[in-house]
Amino acid sequence: MTNDRANDHGAKFKPSMQELLSYNRSYANDFDAGHLDTTPLRNLAVVACMDSRMDIFKILGLDNGEAHIIRNAGGVITDDVIRSLCLSQRALDTREIVLLHHTKCGLHNLSEDKFKADLESELGIKPWWALESFMDPFADVRQSMQRLFATPFVAHKEHIRGFVYDVTTGALDEVTISDD
Ligand SMILES: [Zn+2]
């Protein structure tokens, strides 16, 4: 069976949706944020990894309505992230970008070539996207910052800052472009 590996945790998997929906009913009952505007109050966009241990609002002390949070595996600057940032800046007035990568990331030390070769041998099709695995989270943030500096679609480059979040301490470590 080709899906054996993906189903390794299947025995104890229990869908959450019923619980989530029941939570939402009480959330909607007490809802008081209907007045918030589409434009983020802090004119801020955060690009972060999707890691489940990163509560972006808590890590940065943000409230609902204050920032755009754009997430993917690794917090990588892909074309789609640039699309979101371009809209964020040009239509919704954000002027500051914070990048959050982190320690113990699922993409850390993963072999991009092996990942793709495994997919190709198993599925018969090679992914047309980059996995964007990396060896050093600090170098990876630097790479993301360089991509933002290079694209014409993102402005306000003087307000771009990048950090590595330590999932064991909760602390942010700033990355500067000149570090290497
Ligand atoms: Zn991650």
Written overview of the protein:
- The chain is of the alpha/beta class.
- It has five helices and five strands; from the N terminus they run αβαβαβααββ.
- It has helices at 17-29, 56-60, 79-90, 112-123, 137-150, and strands at residues 44-49, 67-72, 96-102, 160-165, 172-175.
- A five-stranded mixed sheet has the order 2-1-3-4-5, with helices on one face.
- The radius of gyration is 19 Å and the shape is globular.
- It binds zinc ion.
- The site of zinc ion (ZN) has 7 residues, from loops.
- Residues 49, 51, 74, 102, 105-107 line the site of zinc ion.
Name the features.
180 residues; alpha/beta; Beta-carbonic Anhydrase, Chain A; 5-stranded mixed β-sheet; 5 helices; globular; binds zinc ion
Topology (elements, then pairings):
Blueprint: H1 17-29, E1 44-49, H2 56-60, E2 67-72, H3 79-90, E3 96-102, H4 112-123, H5 137-150, E4 160-165, E5 172-175
Parallel strand pairs: 1-2, 1-3, 3-4
Antiparallel strand pairs: 4-5
This protein binds zinc ion (ZN).
Gist?
The chain is of the alpha/beta class. It has helices at residues 17-29, 56-60, 79-90, 112-123, 137-150, and strands at residues 44-49, 67-72, 96-102, 160-165, 172-175.
Order of helices and strands: HEHEHEHHEE
Q: What are the low-pLDDT stretches, counting only 5+ consecutive residues below 50? A: none
Identify the strand order in the major beta sheet. 2-1-3-4-5
Output the structural class: alpha/beta
Strand elements, count: 5
What name does CATH use for the topology? Answer: Beta-carbonic Anhydrase, Chain A
Radius of gyration: 19 Å
Question: Which CATH architecture?
Answer: 3-Layer(aba) Sandwich
Count of individual helical segments: 5
Please indicate the count of domains: 1
Would you state the CATH class?
Alpha Beta
Any idea what the CATH superfamily is called? Carbonic anhydrase
What is the residue-mean pLDDT, rounded to a whole number?
94
Major beta sheet summary:
5 strands, mixed
> Termini distance?
46 Å
Cofactors, ions and other ligands in the entry: zinc ion
What overall form do the CA principal axes indicate?
globular
Strand content: 15-25%
Helix percentage range: 25-40%
